[in-house]
Amino acid sequence: MEKRKWTRVSLNKKQLCFLDEISKNCKFSGGGKLRRTSIVRAFLMAAQKLDIDASGIKSEEELKERVLASFKTRV
Q1: For 25-39, how does the pLDDT look when each residue is reduced to its tens digit (9 = 90+)?
Q2: With left for phi above 0 and alpha for psi between -120 and 50, is residue 51 left, alpha or beta?
Q3: Which of 17, 24, 36, 56 is the most buried (most CB within 10 A)?
């Protein structure tokens, strides 16, 4: 297993509830309980597979739109 480094991420209540809802759905549909960190890592691993052009991005909103656009072209 790869050694992990820790970082803190500031999330709002809506984002935390989203992560908790995913965890709850996993657990109560016959799967296992996933921690928030596991869910975030899974999203990051999935994002690494996308061809995201981050050049010239100046805001979080702009990055989000590029990620969504990259996802749409892969689906």
Answers
A1: 999 999 988 999 999
A2: beta
A3: 36
